[in-house]
Structures are given as structure tokens and as C-alpha cells.
Automatic annotation (TrEMBL):
An annotated GO BP: gamma-aminobutyric acid catabolic process
Protein name: Succinate-semialdehyde dehydrogenase/glutarate-semialdehyde dehydrogenase
InterPro entries: Ald_DH/histidinol_DH, Ald_DH_C, Ald_DH_CS_GLU, Ald_DH_N, Aldehyde_DH_dom, Aldehyde_DH_Superfamily
CDD domains listed in its UniProt record: ALDH_F5_SSADH_GabD
Domain Aldehyde dehydrogenase: 28-486
Keyword Cell division found: no
Oxidoreductase as UniProt keyword: yes
Residue numbers annotated as active site: E265
GO MF, one example: succinate-semialdehyde dehydrogenase (NAD+) activity
UniProt record similarity statement: Belongs to the aldehyde dehydrogenase family.
Keywords: Oxidoreductase
Amino acid sequence: MTVTTVTAEREQELLQSVPTGLLIDGAWRDASSGKTLDVHDPATGKVLLSIQDGNSDDAMAALDAAAAAQHDWALTAPRERAEILRRGFDLVTERAEDFALLMTLEMGKPLAEARGEVAYGAEFLRWFSEEAVRHYGRYFTSPEGKNKMIVTHKPVGPSLLITPWNFPLAMATRKVAPAVAAGCTMVLKPAKLTPLTSMLFAQVMQEAGLPAGVLNVVAGSSASAISGPLMKDSRLRKVSFTGSTPVGVKLMQDAANNVLRTSMELGGNAPFLVFADADLDAAVEGAMAAKMRNMGEACTAANRFLVHEDVAVEFKAKFAAALKALNPARGTEPESTVGPIIDSGARDDIHQLVQDSVAAGGEVVTGGQPKDGDGYFYIPTLLSVGNDNPILSEEIFGPVAPVTTFATEEEAIELANASQYGLASYIYTKDVNTMFRVSEQIEFGLVGFNAGVISNASAPFGGVKQSGLGREGGAEGIEEYTTVQYIGMADPYAAKR
């Protein structure tokens, strides 16, 4: 791991380089209300920057720009869109340290993890630069031989992209890159807790040559003030949202009025299954990656550890030792291995879940408390719980790992499926047949087989049930931003058949 000393001067220099306005039609401008929004450092609680606080009027101005740019942008050659994305990849990669530090400042994750997100997030730009020129249609003869049939893919049109606070760069690139590749214009609404990375990214995409009006960015303290009027406007044709299930449900209800295309990546409650034959050291390593990446603040985070009763004691001992070895500290500190929770309210919610779990019979093996001092830190926690413990039905979104046991494969499957969510899941076993049997029966869009981190730009990301619909990444990702048009024409050779 690269160890870099980050000075206060370096932090201020970076922050001063970040745009603080609203990007509308290629220009950074002040909010129409004149109001500003403070962005805080969750490791200290202090204000990092004040940015322009966009509202409904600003949102509509952004949609005006996107709608005006859509026609010409849709006609832009795929190679030109691809080259813009590739330049964006190069520029983000060149400024990897800037993006990593900015994410650490506004979101809290350790610098090592932030660097990993830069590499992951940038890859969406490179992947979709390649997909842009390979998004093929079809040409074929109808089965009865009377018509020639042409199937084409067209950009769906102006799109509203709403990103969460936990992966400030990757969630922006995962939505913006396929939209650019497909020929869609956009209004990007970043999370109010972590908008700075999106602003820097938008600036980089301008430098990469993205035309004015194609990408517009409106940050604001009220998400509904921005999304509400946009979704009522018939010019908007798609909404892509990553966030909580309740908010996603509300957005889908609003989208129905204009029959908008929707992509929803919502909540998760990922089971982590450890079978009796698993390599426990590998399982613990995978558990640490699946649970502690991003301080557990990820929809793919392992949320329920279901361990075979024969190996549960040993697994818990090894897992607890690994958690104890972690060091919660500001992400800019070289010794930091766990950053803060995003804000005080989120930390309080996590602690309440732990207390409720203990009250219901759960046992704290390690951790179980907030860390004293500045910022919103929570000590990495391992709980030993029964199968009916309430914490197993909650999306924890923090560094808390509840472990329970199962006796049979059938019981493991039943426990895994006992959730309204169906995003990520993890299976540890040496038997590939067990993996196939279990993966075919559990209801999850993603399965990690002896792997704690499986997200990749080249793979389709998304869930089932209350975890949403649609896919981001992979060959499927660009499909979310296109509509299909079929052209049927008389076959001039039909009479000769």
C-alpha cells in the first residue's frame, strides 16, 4: 500500500480547485436562490467547502440544457463519444491522487480504499468507451421470407442520474459512462453529503471534450426539489437511482406518470455463507473484504454471516481477531484501516441496531461501541446471534457483523432467502457442486464464490426483489440507456422464393 503524508496545505489546495457551482449548459453558475450548502468532513465534523444549493428552478434549467443538446448529441458518431470517454479515463487516472484524497475528505474512507475506488470508477469510462462502438443492431429475413427486418438501438433521451454518498466517483462513472456511450444527455444529482467528487469529475469530463449541455450537475440540500419537477416533465425519458428501497419505490411511483425508463439499484442484506468444508482463513479474508470495505457502508456489504455449526466457533474467533486488528482513524492518516461513518445520525442508527440485537439475546464478541473523540467512528463489531435476531433483517450499513449458524444446506438456503432484498451474496465452500446448487436456489443478482469483492465494470451489477431492477456495467449496462426500434421492409427477393 502506498503511504503518503497528506498535509493541511495539500488538502486546502485540492479543495480550492474543486468547482462549487452548478454545471448547466457547459457553465458553472450560482444557484438561483443564492443559497449555499456546507459539505462536512465526517472524520472531524468540520466544514470542508460551501457549494451552491440548487433548487427546482436550477433543475429545470439543467433539463432545458439537456433537452436542447439531445438531438445533436444522439447524432454524434459512436467513435467520437468513445474517444471522449477514453480521454475521461486517462484524465481521471492522471488525477487519481486528487480524486482519492477528495473522496477521503468528504466521505471518510481510508486513502488506500479511495485509490481502489478511483481505479474501479475509472474503469467504467474505459469499458463503455469500448462498448460505444460495439453496440450492434440486427438485420435479418423474417421467418416466412416476406420482409427484411432491421432492429436498431437509439438513445432513450435526457436522463436523470441520482447517485448515493458512499461511492462518490464510481456511482457517477457507472451511470454517466453508459449514458455518454449510448448518446443520452444527463442531469446528475449527486448526494448532498458527498457532492465534491462529482463536481471534480464533471470538470474533468468537460476537459475530455464533452459538449455543453450533455452533462449537467445540480447538487442541492433537497433531493425532491430537484427530482420532483424533472420527473413531471415529459422531456425527461429516464431515471437511474442508487439508494434506499423506500426512496426507490417513491421514484418508481413518480416515474409511472410519464412512463419513464427506470434503473433502480436499491437496498441489500447480503448473506455470507460459510460451509463446513470452507477454507476458513480464506473465508475470513473474504469476510473482511465483504464486510469492512467502505466501513460496511455498501449495498453489497456482507450483512448476515451464516456459518455451518461445525466451524462456527473457529470462524468467529478468527473473524474477531481480524476485526480487532483494524485501526479506526481519519482516512488521511497512514495507519487508518477504517474510516468514520458518514454522519452522526448514521452512527447512532448503527449503535441502536447493536443495542437492539443484544437486547434480543445477541452477544458482543468484539466492539459494540462508538469510538470516543472527534468524528463519527464506530468500532468494528462482531455479534453472535440466533437465527431470529432482529439485526438479521436489517441493512446495517456499518462495520457490524452478526454471525449465526446453520446445520444443513437446505437451512442455509432458507436463511439466505429470508429477506426482502436480493442484491449480493457470498458462498464459501471447496465444493463447486455446492456452489452451483446453492447459487441456483438463492434469490440474489450477484453471487461471490470464494470471493469477497466481485464488482467489476465488465459485469452486470443489480439485484432482484426489493433490491431493484435493471443492470449497471457489463454489456447490459448500455442497454439501460437505449430504446429498441424495429423497421420492417418488403423483401425484394420474396417473390423468387
